[in-house]
């Protein structure tokens, strides 16, 4: 009897020690950067790597596949996908931060700020566009961008970099708001530094700047017209401003226009957008090598264009790209992870499960 009792105790101790060792082997991240390549399926990533504009994708050590369907359709849109990451809940296409019954959901930026983390959003579209919007706003339709701008200006967000100036200014100040509110003046009074061009963004004193909104174009960025609008530079400034917080930060960086070029079935322009995205990945990965407590995730909201890479004319070294749609497809998208806690992001999962995994890292700290 006594022998059996000892054996039980020994087994229990072994299990507990095992759990402890396992828990210790996965380092929890202090900060998280979530990169979204809008419309970036497996073929888009493959095309970037093979055309020598995607080398940083090869630096990720963990990952899996994400199934992207929404609650209303097997083919999702950016709004439903972004809501799934931000809340851990699947919702209908076009919904921003609300559930199927249009009830407001708790958003990722709220979870993060409750824990004292700093938060930031970067996009190459208007910052009120679906993907960034779902992290800070709750509206029943994604097109309500004036309302999204208002909620964004009143949210807990610390850093905003993107386009979409027109949604923040009233008509008298050359914007398009009809309620007469100048949201940028309102944000200034809440300690925000307001920036209108890349030069001023790059010369910000990162030690002294706590909150910043940089609206660098009237609508979405036009990178061809303004090549200084580099996602990599924006990512670098953002990390240096946000990383002053001892409690860590959450930053979302979106390459918004990979999707738009894929909608146009424009392979060359899509690669141009992927190159910009890849350089931003490089900045974060380099930073993670010096700061071990940083987790970097890369994924997409859906694939766009139904891109297939077929045998090219030069059999040894090129693809013949074929598009099957001008819309989104239902192909699963890649999930790549590097840095602290990246082991927690392996396997095949639904998109809302990915959201819940990110939120649980923020909640359980
Ligand atoms: Zn799209």
Task: Give a written overview of the molecule.
- The chain is of the alpha/beta class and 365 residues long.
- It has one domain (42-310, 319-363): 3-Layer(aba) Sandwich (Alkaline Phosphatase, subunit A), CATH 3.40.720.
- It has 12 helices and 14 strands.
- It has helices at 2-25, 42-50, 78-87, 108-114, 130-133, 145-153, 183-188, 198-202, 231-242, 257-263, 267-290, 351-363; strands at 31-37, 62-67, 118-126, 159-163, 192-195, 211-215, 249-255, 294-299, 303-304, 308-311, 319-322, 328-329, 333-339, 347-350.
- The strands form 3 sheets. The protein has a 10-stranded mixed beta sheet with strand order 5-6-4-3-7-1-8-13-2-14, with helices on both faces.
- The chain is globular.
- The model has no long low-confidence stretch (mean pLDDT 94).
- Bound molecules: zinc ion.
- The site of zinc ion has 5 residues, from α10.
């Amino acid at each position: 009897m006594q022998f059996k009792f000892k054996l039980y105790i020994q087994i229990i101790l072994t299990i507990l020690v095992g759990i402890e060792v396992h828990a210790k082997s996965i380092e929890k991240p202090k900060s998280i950067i979530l990169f979204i390549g809008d419309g970036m399926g497996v073929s888009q990533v493959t095309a970037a790597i093979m055309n020598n504009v995607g080398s940083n994708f090869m630096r990720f050590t963990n990952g899996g596949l994400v199934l992207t369907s929404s609650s209303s359709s097997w083919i999702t849109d950016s709004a439903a996908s972004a809501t799934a990451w931000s809340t851990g809940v699947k919702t209908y296409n076009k919904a921003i931060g609300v559930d199927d019954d249009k009830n407001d959901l708790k958003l990722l930026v709220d979870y993060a700020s409750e824990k004292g983390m700093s938060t930031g959003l970067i996009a190459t579209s208007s910052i009120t566009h679906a993907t960034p919007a779902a992290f800070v706003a709750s509206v029943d339709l994604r097109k309500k961008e004036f309302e999204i701008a208002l909620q964004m200006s009143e949210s807990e967000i610390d850093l905003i970099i993107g386009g979409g100036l027109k949604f923040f200014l009233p008509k008298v100040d050359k914007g398009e708001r009809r309620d007469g509110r100048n949201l940028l003046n309102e944000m200034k009074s809440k300690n925000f530094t307001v920036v209108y061009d890349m030069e001023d963004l790059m010369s910000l004193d990162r030690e002294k700047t706590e909150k910043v909104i940089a609206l660098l174009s009237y609508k979405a960025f036009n990178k061809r017209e303004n090549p200084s609008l580099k996602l990599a530079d924006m990512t670098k400034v953002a990390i240096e401003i946000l990383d002053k917080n001892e409690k860590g930060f959450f930053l979302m960086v979106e390459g918004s226009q990979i999707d738009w070029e894929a909608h146009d079935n424009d392979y060359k322009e899509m690669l141009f957008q992927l190159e910009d995205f890849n350089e931003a990945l490089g900045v974060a990965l380099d930073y993670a090598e010096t700061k071990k407590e940083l987790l970097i995730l890369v994924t997409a909201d859906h694939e766009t264009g139904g891109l297939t890479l077929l045998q090219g004319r030069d059999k040894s070294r090129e693809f013949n790209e074929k598009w099957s749609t001008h819309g989104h497809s239902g192909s699963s998208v890649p999930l790549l992870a590097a840095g602290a806690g990246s082991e927690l992001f392996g396997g095949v999962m639904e998109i809302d499960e990915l959201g819940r995994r990110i939120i649980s890292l923020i909640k359980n700290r």
